[in-house]
Structures are given as C-alpha cells and as structure tokens.
Amino acid sequence: MAEARRLRHALTDSPAGPLRIVASERGISGIYWQNHAHPPGPEVLGERLPSPDADALVSQCATELAEYFSGTRKEFEVPLDAQGTEFQHRVWEQLSRIPCGESRSYGQLALALGDVKLTRAVGTANGRNPISIIVPCHRVIGSDRSLTGYAGGLEAKLFLLRLEGIEPAAEATLF
C-alpha cells in the first residue's frame, strides 16, 4: 500500500489576491485562489502552516511567485507534485511549455496532443489544473483571443495576462 503524502499549506499575498500554496514532500501540489472555482478539500491541503516561511518548499514557491509578480521571474524552479489523471498530466505538460508572454487556444493545445477533437477534454483538464500560475492555464484563451473561464476568476486571469504583456480581444476585457 502506498504511503500517505504529508501535505501542508500556507497563505501568501499577491497583487491579484491571496494564494494558498500546498506542498507534499516531493513538491508543490497546489496553488489555489481565495475564490477558486474548484476549491480543495481538507484532504488536499494537509497541515496549516503559520506562514510560508515555516516550510522550505512553500517558502521557495512564495518567493518565486513574488518574483513573478514583480516582473523579475518568467520561469519557475520549485519542484511540482500535481495529482491527476494521465490525460490531465499530458495537458498540464503542454501548458508548461507555453512561454511567459505567449498564449494558446484550446484547439492549439488539442492539436499539440495529436487530435483537435480533444478540445473540450483539454478545456476540462485545463480547468482542473491544481497549480495555478506556475502551470500557466491562464495563458489559454479563446481562438478569437477572448477570455475564457479561469478557476481564479476572469479578473485574476486578465491581471495575469496583462502582467505578461498579453492583451486579450478588446471586447472580452472586463474593464
């Protein structure tokens, strides 16, 4: 029988709102927005830490996120430990290949996986990405450059895209 993962989590501030960072012994297993569309249950969070500095992985992640928000970091180095299906991992791997400052459509991701008919499944897997920002599901927009759903909310998605210099279609903006 597999040994249970020791999970722990802490809140960190960001310019887009508080983020909950979850870590296992192997890496970051989740970054969740305050009003996350698919909020994690207690079994996904583990022990609550008093601050990100109470754990080396959580602290490293919080530091790298702060650097990203300040514009000094474009790639992350903290190890990851996302839990999901084989297909979800394939989608998340494709997301991780989208460079900072670029975007892709769901159809482009489906084609990269070998079948344009996977577009809806790609969208579902994208929406279930547990590691917001670092696995950049926010970089996936509509084929017409419109904003599409985001677990952290469309305002957070728009903030992240603009932070990276990506401007969605004018009619799709919230402001």
UniProtKB/TrEMBL annotation:
<dbReference type="GO" id="GO:0006307">
    <property type="term" value="P:DNA alkylation repair"/>
</dbReference>
<feature type="domain" description="Methylguanine DNA methyltransferase ribonuclease-like">
    <location>
        <begin position="7"/>
        <end position="81"/>
    </location>
</feature>
<comment type="function">
    <text>Involved in the cellular defense against the biological effects of O6-methylguanine (O6-MeG) and O4-methylthymine (O4-MeT) in DNA. Repairs the methylated nucleobase in DNA by stoichiometrically transferring the methyl group to a cysteine residue in the enzyme. This is a suicide reaction: the enzyme is irreversibly inactivated.</text>
</comment>
<dbReference type="Pfam" id="PF01035">
    <property type="entry name" value="DNA_binding_1"/>
</dbReference>
<dbReference type="Pfam" id="PF02870">
    <property type="entry name" value="Methyltransf_1N"/>
</dbReference>
<dbReference type="InterPro" id="IPR014048">
    <property type="entry name" value="MethylDNA_cys_MeTrfase_DNA-bd"/>
</dbReference>
<dbReference type="InterPro" id="IPR001497">
    <property type="entry name" value="MethylDNA_cys_MeTrfase_AS"/>
</dbReference>
<comment type="similarity">
    <text>Belongs to the MGMT family.</text>
</comment>
<protein>
    <recommendedName>
        <fullName>Methylated-DNA--protein-cysteine methyltransferase</fullName>
        <ecNumber>2.1.1.63</ecNumber>
    </recommendedName>
</protein>
<feature type="active site" description="Nucleophile; methyl group acceptor">
    <location>
        <position position="137"/>
    </location>
</feature>
<keyword id="KW-0808">Transferase</keyword>
<dbReference type="GO" id="GO:0032259">
    <property type="term" value="P:methylation"/>
</dbReference>
<dbReference type="InterPro" id="IPR008332">
    <property type="entry name" value="MethylG_MeTrfase_N"/>
</dbReference>
<keyword id="KW-0489">Methyltransferase</keyword>
<keyword id="KW-0234">DNA repair</keyword>
<dbReference type="InterPro" id="IPR036388">
    <property type="entry name" value="WH-like_DNA-bd_sf"/>
</dbReference>
<dbReference type="InterPro" id="IPR023546">
    <property type="entry name" value="MGMT"/>
</dbReference>
<keyword id="KW-0227">DNA damage</keyword>
<dbReference type="GO" id="GO:0003908">
    <property type="term" value="F:methylated-DNA-[protein]-cysteine S-methyltransferase activity"/>
</dbReference>
<dbReference type="InterPro" id="IPR036631">
    <property type="entry name" value="MGMT_N_sf"/>
</dbReference>
<dbReference type="InterPro" id="IPR036217">
    <property type="entry name" value="MethylDNA_cys_MeTrfase_DNAb"/>
</dbReference>
<keyword id="KW-0963">Cytoplasm</keyword>
<dbReference type="GO" id="GO:0005737">
    <property type="term" value="C:cytoplasm"/>
</dbReference>
<feature type="domain" description="Methylated-DNA-[protein]-cysteine S-methyltransferase DNA binding">
    <location>
        <begin position="86"/>
        <end position="166"/>
    </location>
</feature>
